[in-house]
Amino acid sequence: MNRRFAYAWAVLALTSFSFAPAVRGWGCHGHETVAALAEKHLTPEAKQALLALLTSNPIDPQLKRFCGDTGLDPMVDAATWADDERTKDPATAPWHFIDIPLGVAQGSAENFCGAGGCVTKAITEQLAILKDKTAAGPKRAAALRFIIHFVGDLHQPLHATTNSDRGGNCVGLQYLQRRPHARNNSYTPNLHHIWDTEIPESQMQGADAVEFANTLDAMFAASLAEWQAGGMQLDNWAWESHQHAADTAYGVLGKSIAVEPDVPVNSCADDNNIGQRMLHKHIVVGVTYRDQAGSVAEERLAQAGIRLAMILSDAAKAGL
After folding, report:
1. How far is CA 279 from CA 170, 180, 247, 264, 267, in A?
2. What pLDDT, in 10s, does the model give residues 299-311?
3. 8-state DSSP, 163
């Protein structure tokens, strides 16, 4: 099964970090928005317990924070910690995504969970740790930080999809006026990164995470109860993301993207040099694509925040 972050690739990526774009589902501001929206919808009891757990078990001040440490609210600050932790512990890299190949029929998402784990499995495992009252405080706080981040990741369409292209990281393209360039078999801009960062941040229009969370809260007010109905449905949420990737992320690119053979890809030079083949398609992402993708990104960020609140409030019922 293809996993775009096999352990070997995670190690390689760390050694060449300055040359390759990092995969950070939703980027800094997107993940922070998910956490801010979730915090607005926590039960009072859950909010008190979760904030107490985070503040009494703070993030290691020696850990290098990619998104910076600006004294954010503990939940909002926690939202990006898992990406920093991945740099320290590459074994956690596969926990951020699930590689469901483009074009497969819907079934159990678990079938696409690699040997190193995947995002749906990681959420389940970390939730069990969070609920375990016998677990040490730092371990439970880490589990909470993982959950906050991974629920966001699961709702990013390209964290639940691959076309033997490392979840779109090997699809170099022109984004508005910014032309693609290649370096060490990495491509910038690329399909994955614009969904992580450029597109959601274009929707934010300079707002911070709390302000944008308030905007999404009002925008999708009529849908909130429906999104929480049925409890935690990780498989369904993965397939939602996968479908959005098929319909929008790949589907409206303006260039035909064939379904690739499902093969292991640790570098964009694999799968018959998938990166160069995609680059030579001369894909251009303009305003129309950005707006279509932006609408999907807004909904997915909102769904992630509301569902995260539901998961954490439910966990708090048993007492944290």
Report:
1. 8, 8, 21, 20, 14
2. 999 999 999 999 9
3. S
**Token duo for residue 87:** 């740099």
Measuring CA to CA, which residue among 126, 142, 141 is closest to residue 50? 141
pLDDT in tens, 181-223: 999 889 999 999 999 999 999 999 999 999 999 999 999 999 9
* Phi, psi for residue 311 in degrees, rounded to 5: -60, -45
d(CA 91, CA 116): 7
Rounded CA separation 47/178 (Å): 42
Split at pLDDT 50, 70, 90, the class of 15 is very low
Cα-Cα-Cα-Cα dihedral sign, residues 32, 36, 38, 44: positive
Tell me the sheet residues that pair with 284: 174
Among residues 190, 99, 197, 85, the alpha carbon closest in space to that of 145 is found at 85
Which stretches of 57-118 are DSSP H helices? 74-78, 81-88
Q: Which residues contact 281 (CB under 8 A, 6 or more apart)?
A: 255, 257
Q: How large is the average pLDDT for residues 66-80?
A: 86
Tokens coding 101: 């190949």
Q: Is the pLDDT of residue 116 over 80?
A: yes
Q: What share of the chain is helix, strand, coil (3-state, %, to 5)?
A: 60, 5, 35
